[in-house]
């Protein structure tokens, strides 16, 4: 009887070992989550920072290869009906929330099922991310991952961005993953939609928005642009200014999101 108990005690840690080993790839790397890309650690040159710091370290993390789609968000809403259009509290989403859907639990347009979900608030995007066991990427993570040239487009990244900015968003957005793929394997970091980040307004608002120093006006493309790392980076000014204009409950017809995850 004692031998059987000892065998059982030995078997439990062995099973745990094989369970972990089964989740690992050859070479010792833990298998990445499905649909996500591992972004390697590196340094990000700050667009503007009044602390005197020129670069920040970005640790390695996982990022969705593409934006979350309408069909994927519909699954979330059905599983969490408190986030449906008619039930979401006004505190967490304005009146434009999912306005392009036919009803609470029906998209109503089969052509946009695989298009990025938009008209979602930061609160809704954050709730979806947590439901998936993930999170929204931080601003520095998103900027770092996006700053990679395309591998399937002859245009430069700057040309892609400026071409996108010059055209109005179509009424029906193209399929997620259809714009371009960058060197990391991430799709549509530019050229399809704007995307929420976890700390979307941190670069604009200080600890007390009533103080004169609370708003970093240098982040807008005006005379203070001389403090920017690249005064000709019009696209970055657009991104920072847009983020600074948002509140967590706002919804926009070309603003969606993708999820991140820690290693």
Brief description of this entry?
The chain has 6 helices and 7 strands. With 263 residues, it is an alpha+beta fold.
Describe the structure.
The strands form three sheets. The protein has a three-stranded antiparallel beta sheet with strand order 1-4-7, with no helix packed on it. It is globular, with a radius of gyration of 22 Å. The chain is of the alpha+beta class and 263 residues long. It starts with a helix and ends with a strand. The chain is built from six helices and seven strands; from the N terminus they run αββββααααβαββ. 26% of the residues lie in helices and 9% in strands. About 19% of the residues have low confidence. The protein has one domain: paralog of FGE (formylglycine-generating enzyme), CATH 3.90.1580.
List the helices and strands and how they pair.
Elements: H1 2-21, E1 36-39, E2 42-45, E3 55-58, E4 61-64, H2 70-79, H3 122-131, H4 139-146, H5 157-165, E5 194-195, H6 234-244, E6 255-256, E7 260-262
Parallel strand pairs: 5-6
Antiparallel strand pairs: 1-4, 2-3, 4-7
Question: What number is the mean pLDDT?
Answer: 81
Q: What amount of the residues lies in strands?
A: 5-15%
Q: Which strand order spans the largest sheet, edge to edge or round the barrel?
A: 1-4-7
CATH-defined fold name: paralog of FGE (formylglycine-generating enzyme)
Search tags:
single chain; alpha+beta; 263 residues; paralog of FGE (formylglycine-generating enzyme); globular
């Amino acid at each position: 009887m004692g031998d059987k108990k000892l065998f059982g005690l030995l078997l439990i840690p062995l099973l745990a070992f094989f369970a972990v080993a089964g989740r690992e790839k050859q070479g010792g790397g833990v298998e990445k989550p499905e649909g996500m890309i591992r972004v390697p650690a590196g340094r990000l040159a700050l667009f503007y920072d009044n602390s005197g710091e020129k670069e920040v370290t970005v640790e390695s993390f996982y990022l969705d290869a593409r934006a979350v789609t309408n069909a994927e968000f519909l699954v979330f809403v059905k599983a969490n009906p408190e986030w449906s259009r008619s039930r979401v509290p006004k505190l967490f989403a304005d009146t434009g929330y999912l306005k392009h859907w036919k009803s609470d639990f029906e998209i109503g347009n089969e052509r946009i099922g695989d298009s990025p979900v938009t008209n979602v608030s930061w609160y809704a995007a954050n709730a979806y991310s947590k439901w998936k066991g993930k999170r929204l990427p931080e601003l520095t993570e998103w900027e770092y991952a996006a700053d990679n040239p395309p591998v399937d487009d002859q245009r430069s990244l700057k040309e892609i961005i400026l071409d996108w900015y010059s055209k109005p968003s179509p009424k029906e957005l193209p399929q997620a993953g259809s714009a371009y793929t960058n060197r990391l394997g991430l799709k549509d970091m530019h050229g399809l939609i704007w995307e929420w980040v976890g700390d979307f307004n941190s670069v604009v608002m200080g600890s007390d928005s009533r103080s004169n120093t609370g708003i970093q006006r240098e982040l807008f493309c005006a005379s203070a642009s001389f403090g920017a790392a690249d005064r000709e980076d019009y696209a970055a000014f657009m991104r920072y200014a847009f983020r600074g204009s948002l509140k967590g409950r706002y919804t926009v017809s070309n603003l969606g999101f993708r999820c991140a995850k820690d290693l």
